[in-house]
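Propose amino acids for all 131 sites.
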């Protein structure tokens, strides 16, 4: 791949073609329309392993940044017993405790597995059930 910067209008888009230095006019399939108020900054031409060429075009435009007024602030603190605790009302995250819920079943299955003889069909079936 190689990158070329726009200097004195050497990169231009012209209805289905792009004018590049050294290559002149090259036919392209343009996937997105670039508005007229955008300025072309640079182009990077790259070749894939399959032999296709791609061009990425870097543009610059003026964007008016609108100030946003902050309406509400919420602080979240990490908690060891839960995921987080909210600052205002002290609410905790309500998430499912899958490990705690399956702990009794897991201990029972492990007790059964410990009595089995290693290598037997029952042992394999029980081992897969516990895992």
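Proposal:
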């Amino acid at each position: 791949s190689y990158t070329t910067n726009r200097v004195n209008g050497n990169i231009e888009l012209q209805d289905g073609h792009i004018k590049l230095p050294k290559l002149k006019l090259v036919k392209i399939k343009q996937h997105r329309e670039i508005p007229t108020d955008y300025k072309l900054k640079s182009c990077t031409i790259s070749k894939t392993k399959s032999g296709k060429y791609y061009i990425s075009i870097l543009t610059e435009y003026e964007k008016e940044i609108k100030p946003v007024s902050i309406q509400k602030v919420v602080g979240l603190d990490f908690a060891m017993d839960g995921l987080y605790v909210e600052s205002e009302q002290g609410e905790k995250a309500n998430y499912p405790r899958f490990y705690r819920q399956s702990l009794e079943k897991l201990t029972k299955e492990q007790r059964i597995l410990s009595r089995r003889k290693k290598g037997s069909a029952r042992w394999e079936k029980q081992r897969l059930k516990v895992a």
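The chain is about 20% helix and 30% strand. The chain has two domains: 2-60, 76-130.
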